[in-house]
Every structure is written in C-alpha cells, then in structure tokens.
Amino acid sequence: AVVSTQSGHYGRDTNYILSMAMYRASTVMRRFVHYGPLLASSIIILVTVMALCSILAGTPISSYRLQSGKTTWRHHATIAAFSNLTIFLCLAILTSYHFLVCIIVGPGFVKHDYAPDKKKDEEKLQYCQECEAYKCPRSHHCRKCQRCVKKMDHHCPWINACVGHRNHAHFIRFLVYAA
Fold it and tell me: Which of 12, 28, 85, 151 fits a disulfide with 165 by CB distance 3.0 to 4.6 angstroms?
C-alpha cells in the first residue's frame, strides 16, 4: 500500500500504518494481560516497595541504631546505605525494564509465507504441518503461540510468550538482575 504524496515522496498508506500499529498494540496487550506477567510485575513492584520502605523508614527488618547519649544515628543516613539504596534501585529498574522489553519485543516469529530462495534448498528444510510452511533453520513450533519461533528456547509463562531470537538476551538479563 505505497502511495504518492503531493511532494512527490512515496510513503506508506496511513490506514495501513494505523492498522499495523493497532495490531501490534493488541498483541502486546494480550501478552501482558495474563496471569504470568501480571503476577511477575506484581512481585517486582511489591519487593521494590517493601525494600524501599524498609530502607528509608528504618524498620526493624534492616535497621540498627547506635545510641550514644541523646544522639541517635540511623543507618540510612550513611554513604554505605546510600550506595546500597542506589544499587538496589538500579537493579529494580533494570529488572523491570528487561521484563517489559521481553514482553514487548516478542520472540521473533517465522513469517507465514517463508520459503527458501532456491527450490533445491527446500529439501534441506523442515516443513511445519501446523503452520503449513517451511521452517527457518533452528526454529520450532510453539503449541501455545501457534506459530513457528526462530531459535526457540521455551514458552515462558512469566512473560506469556516464547523466548526466542529477538528477546533471548533481554530474558537472560531479566533473570540476572532479578536474582
């Protein structure tokens, strides 16, 4: 759907762009509004809020007070506590970021009409009976997504999507920062 504009430049039809944007947004929303991503994001938020309250309020979970006379020294006013808080916030933000990017980016699906460039290469490729198309090398069919996924690792219920070619690095970073 390529059209000519008044200035002579060729661009995509705005209806096509809007329909693709709506399709992409609905796909992301379907992935996010599921028990796995909602539970995981709730856990991330709950742990972050509880830890921040504990650190900043000086609750018995993490506080110790050194009293000498009338002066009370609180641990959250020190440089070490500030650096601990900074590192914790960075890890919490990075965990949330990579979790959301895993969901938004998606695994990298094989196109429905994928076929090799040369006919003689078809005999070397596997054919997916469910998708009724050829698979890329190292791709697998996911029963949950109903699609073939490039370099599929597994279908993760926490992100409600497969971990594949496009989101594998973000998934690993999500796990590292969450641990």
Answer: 151
- Identify the active-site residue in 142, 145, 148, 156: 156
Q: Give the position of tokens 């590292």.
A: 176
Residue labelled with tokens 């997504």:
145
pLDDT in tens, 22-81: 666 677 777 777 788 889 889 999 988 888 877 776 544 444 444 444 444 455 567 777
Give CA–CA dist 27/133, Å, rounded: 22
54-59 long-range contacts, CB within 8 A, separation 24+? 55/81, 55/84, 55/85, 55/88, 56/85
Average pLDDT of the segment spanning 5-26: 61
For residue 156, indicate whether it is catalytic.
yes
Q: Is the pTM of this model over 0.90?
A: no
Interaxial angle between packed helices 79-105 and 168-178, expressed in degrees from 0 to 180 and rounded to the nearest 10: 150
The sign of the CA dihedral 49, 51, 57, 60 is: positive
Q: Residue 173, Cβ neighbours under 10 Å: how many?
A: 17
Least confident of 17-26, 114-123, 149-158: 17-26
